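Support request, please re-run this one:
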Amino acid sequence: MPSYDIYSQGLDACAANFEQLSPLRFIERTAQVYPEALAVVHEGVRRNWAETYARCRRIAGALSRRGIGQGDTVAILAANIPEMFESHFSVPMTGAVLNAINTRLDPEAVAFILMHGEARVLLVDPEFAELADRAVKIARGREILVVDILDPSFPGGGRAGRLTYDELLAEGDPDFDWHLPDSEWNAISLNYTSGTTGDPKGVVYHHRGAALNALANITSWGMPHHARYLWTLPMFHCNGWCFPWTIAANAGVCVCLRAVRAEPIYRLIRDERVTHFCGAPIVMNMLANAPDELKDFDHPVKAMVAGAPPPASVIAAVEAMGIEITHVYGLTETYGPSVVCAWKGDWDALEAEQRARLKSRQGVRNPALGGLMVADPATLEPVPADGRTMGEIFMRGNIVMKGYLKNPSATERSFRGGWFASGDLGVMHPDGYIELKDRSKDIIISGGENISSIEVEDVLYKHPDVMEAAVVARPDETWGETPCAFVALKPGRALNEEEVIAFCRLNMARYKVPKTVVFGELPKTSTGKIQKFLLRDRARALG
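Re-run finished. Output below.
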């Protein structure tokens, strides 16, 4: 027996057999192999992959000439337009880090992000020029180059800088000699959490994780080559779940969309032969309840849904239109979708309601995630796989963030025993699929009983008159807390509190039935998540 490892002798990594993983390779290859293939569609703009790659290299070259490089931050405030897509390649080509900012934030929050992320450049869509201008003025002391993206398809809007994107483009070289990062652990992007309980935290992604999750999107979804992807999901949200890089790897088509409304979505699905799109359950619910005359596409379409556990009734309604749903789950800290409800062929024979119920589970780890478990948050002992015992969801692997920017204490709290603690509560089913039950802060404890707000919402969504529903805890002197339901009705429908409560009594255990029902529009984030923290405030204010 040899006393040494024969496979470690004279078999070192070198330039010929090893390079750092990065999604930048995806656009380079696609532009070389499919230069004439359609890459980007936006109103009157149609560009192929050769043109798109050249534009990315020119912007990268221009930024580099202006001193932007390794470790610098380039921020962008933009809708889902071509320049936002290009920035996912041009910025990291310089070695810099892309910070796509939530366009729904207020100027103070944007200013905090610009200062905390130490942005040196800010690219601005005309729709958000006023927001950018106010934020930059608040962020005094930071020297920020503001670059205006002039989008002819957007009427109105202003300017926040003295340089335009096209002028910056003209400064660059389409043959700019970009390089892969020295280490795939280098940061590629910076994404800020919502900050509903204080200042937002900056989540740092690396090149390796971005590349791996981009490829996992293809395998998880079974995406065919040259898929036509519609941007119903904001690119500022977890870098669009890594789909800018996925589209490049897939040699697909990036169909841009400024505003998420039913009419343009259905029009683009029909006219551009869109095959794939992503979104929160609220987007799917909007599409399901749109006028029937809009739903005139005649080809297969797949939708990926995440952001909140989708009610089974919403999944069933969307699939009844001919849109096949894939449910995924993840967090900003896990590059977006890291868990997928992987479909099994023998489930096809089940009734539609049973299939929808299975699809509403979060699922199993995607090909890029190393580990997934539901465990006791104190001991990290996995809970029984019985579909009933609740625990916290933990992940680990290459698509867990580097950590929180300039916040080591928050990073340390999130990483426990070699796992990332999600803060989400769920169960593990006997088949190994997890199902989310609630955020730890959203569990309602009434008379000593734990009530999952998601389970109550799932019943409410089954009512034919209910468009949207959210359930939170309302303080109660007797029970401690009781469920309080906030309900938005479908247009032209009418319900009262007694009718909603009676419906719930027929469909759930009595202790879970909401004691209060409030009707009206529900507050949402820019990505379609219902803002439960605001609803909790309203519930407390009810007295």
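The longest strand covers residues 466-476. The chain has a mean pLDDT of 92.
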